[in-house]
Every structure is written in structure tokens, then in C-alpha cells.
Amino acid sequence: MCTFSDLIQWSTALYSDVDGTLVPASNQISPILIKEVERVVDAGFHFTLATGRNFAGVQRLLRSIPVTDPIVLCNGAYVYDALTHTDSYVSIPNEIALELLSRLLRLTNVVVYVDTADRTFWVSRVSAQSEPYAMVEQLKPRMFTHANELISHQDIVKVGVKLLDATHQTRLQIHELLECLERELPKQLHYCFSSPNYLEFMRVGVSKWSGIQVSQSLRSRRKGDVLIAVGDEHNDVEMVKHAHIGVAMGNAVDAVKQAADHCIGSVDNDGMAHFLRSLRTQIQTVFS
């Protein structure tokens, strides 16, 4: 764990989750938080995103807040540098992706989402639960019905499964699927829940933390630079645990809080805005 003096001595980069951290259930970032992000960047901090969302899913947010470093997307599977317009991705091997998708498409009461390396967003069906979000973020998903359609199109970087209901039967089939995958495809996939009803699969070894390492390497950051990671869900555990300063939102799941060095206010109470203000205020106090 770093001390405050480390923030003064070294460059500091803050990686923030989006849903449940920057934006609440309304999917709208507060004006207070927008202002604090601008101020903390003006104070010399580096600020960027580490999210499960894809490239299209953060475009509206990026029109509201400044980011200084490459963005970690798709839970670390895709990293994009807006400054140089370059990207880096880790795909799921075709044979593994084919087996995974074939099994997922047999499940009931779920929607399967797929992100490919060319930034195309695919869905197995349109649902009332997902359509409003897709419209607001202008995701423009393409439909698919067979796994082979995707394998022949482009490298697959992330596969998501949205549970359309929270019944025991639906959760049981997910549990049985995960047991089967761990038994038949050991050490091939990394999976995590980014919300209670949304399960995501990436290649083994891929997480937001691995994406942060790629993001840092694209800008040749010094090894002594301080990394701060802020999150709230299970897909944030690795980055919160391994960052120099790990921060859990007040609304975070217990696993994130246990991994964190600090716990701040909830997303509904502008917890991130207050945290950024405290960082900036301490910097200003030292140099005033």
C-alpha cells in the first residue's frame, strides 16, 4: 500500500470502473463527478477507465469526461489508446470460443453477447432488459444464431451471458455450465460476474488488472508510478487487490471491499466525486 507522499513523488494514474462506480443504475454521470474528474486531471493526475463495457459502450461517457491514458475495455481483453488510435487485444482461441458459444446458445432464459476484435457487438437475441441500454449507448448490435458465424468473422475477445430472470432454475443451469467448463476446458477461460445477472468470459489470464498492465506499457510508464484502482463488482477484484492503492465503493460487493485498501462512499452519493476531491485537496495543501 502506498502512502500519500508517494502520490507527490511519482506520477499517479487512476483507473476507474464505470457501472456502479462512475455511473449509478440511471446510467448518467453526475455533474459533480464530471467537474471533479476535470479538476483532478488539471491537478496532474492521470485518469482513465477500466470497464467490462466495449468501445461503443463508453463513447457517450467519454464525451463528458477527460481521459489521459489508454482505456481498458471488455474486462481487460481490449485496450484502446485514443491518443494514438492504436489498440491491443487478447482473443479467446477459436476452438475454445466455438465450444463455449455452442454450450451457451443451448441455455434458456439468457441472452449471449459477443465482442469481437473489430469492435463489432453481437447478440443472440433482442430482449426487453437489454434493448434500452443498447439504444442509449448506440451499440447497434448484430444478431447471430450460430457460433460459426462469429468464428469466421473476427477474433472473439469477450463473451457475455445476461440472465433474463433470477429463478433457481436459471441459476442452476449457469452453475452446471461452469462446472462443466472447468472440468472439460480446464485453465482455458477466465470468467467473472460483472453484475448479479451478467456473467462474462475472457481468455485465461485476462482481467482488468492485466489490461491495466497493457495500458501502462503503451505509454511507457515508470515502474515507480502509482496506480489507483476503484471498483465495486467481482470483475474489479483483481485490479483493486493488485493496484498500489485499491479503492472499493460503498456499494461494492464484499469481495471487493476485502481486497481494497480504502472504502469510500456509494455511487448514489457521489462517492467517487468526494474521493477525487480529497486527492486533489491534499495535493493542493502540500504545494500551497
Automatic annotation (TrEMBL):
Instruction: Please give one Gene Ontology molecular function term for this protein.
Output: magnesium ion binding
- Record-linked PANTHER family: HAD SUPERFAMILY HYDROLASE-LIKE, TYPE 3, PHOSPHOSERINE PHOSPHATASE
Per the UniProt entry, the signal peptide is none
Q: Provide one Gene Ontology cellular component.
A: cytosol
**Keyword Nucleus attached:** no
Q: Which UniProt keywords apply?
A: Hydrolase
Gene3D superfamilies xrefs: 3.30.1240.10, HAD superfamily/HAD-like
- Protein name (record): Cof-type HAD-IIB family hydrolase
